[in-house]
Amino acid sequence: MWLRAWLACGLALPLPLAAVTSQSFQVSATITPGCLIVGGGSNYGALAYGSYSALATGTVTAAITGGVTLQCTPGVALSMSVNGGLHSSTGRNLQLNTGSARVAYQLFRDAAFSQSLGISQSVSVSYSDANTISLPIYGRVVLPGNQPGGTYSDTLQVQLSW
């Protein structure tokens, strides 16, 4: 009887199973194409025409300097638009900081000043190096030679999209 009980108990014990020591699992990531604005904080740069006599006439040009650099996933279609500024009732204007005198100016998207950058016009930003993209903004002003002396300025808003 004792042997039967022992055999019955022995048969009830679980048998060792072969342990799985190797198995696979999936790893994945989704990379969303886009752009990153590097440096500059809230300042996208400056378009500085320089300092001239109040009697000076002629055309003066400048390119945007300083500010931000963009980095985009290669192949991302980047575009920008620039509003009319603070004094745009009749186009873009620099306004005397201590008065109401204004000097008109124009923006372009190429250094040859052949492609106008209209008010709030969305334009493509081309780039050859996706890690160092600069905003293609160039300005031209015709000095009238009859304005009061002082500092003339404007503030523009740039909208980027991708």
Automatic annotation (TrEMBL):
Signal sequence segment: 1-19
Pfam families xref list: SCPU
Residue stretches making up the Spore coat protein U/FanG domain: 23-158
The keyword Flavoprotein is annotated on this UniProt entry: no
What keywords does the record list, in alphabetical order? Signal
The reply on keyword Lyase is no
List, alphabetically, the PANTHER family matched: EXPORTED PROTEIN, PROTEIN U-RELATED
Q: What is this protein called?
A: Spore coat U domain-containing protein
Q: Name the lineage.
A: Bacteria, Pseudomonadati, Pseudomonadota, Gammaproteobacteria, Pseudomonadales
